[in-house]
Amino acid sequence: MKEEIIIAGFGGQGVLSMGKILAYSGLMEGKEVSWMPSYGPEQRGGTANVTVILNDGPISSPILNQYDTAIILNQPSLDKFESAVKPGGTLIFDGYGINHPPKRKDINVYQINAMDAATEMKNDKTFNMIILGGLLKVRPIVTLENVVKGLKKSLPERHHHLIPMNEQAIRKGMDIIKKL
What we know:
This protein is an alpha/beta fold. The chain is 36% helix and 27% strand.
């Protein structure tokens, strides 16, 4: 199974860390993994994206023009990457900050109101984990158990006490994602 993913949004939304956690989760499952971040010099507040490839076999190149799945967290990223989703692929977007929703009819489009859910949880930092939960619901490419292991790998040990809250956020995302 090969999954080519782009995650795109503003710096500070957890785009790169979400990709890193996905990559570590793939490693925990014995998959071949590529994690390739891209961001401007203004990182926080500027645009950022990360390409993650998970594959059962070797990955020939980390550079992609089309994706199986796009996770979109702002309007500029939607404008840039909607057309790069393969026909039959998946596009997941957070409704907050999207003025013009996706228009394509040849892909599976899902909306997740992660910003609202993070506010409900009284922790805006759970935003990216809610999004990740939505992804795992519609594209179960890694198990929740391995995502928790990926969190342990990617978070500094001083933040490991936050893992149960992050797991709760992932489960929340699984519950609230909706197909359009």
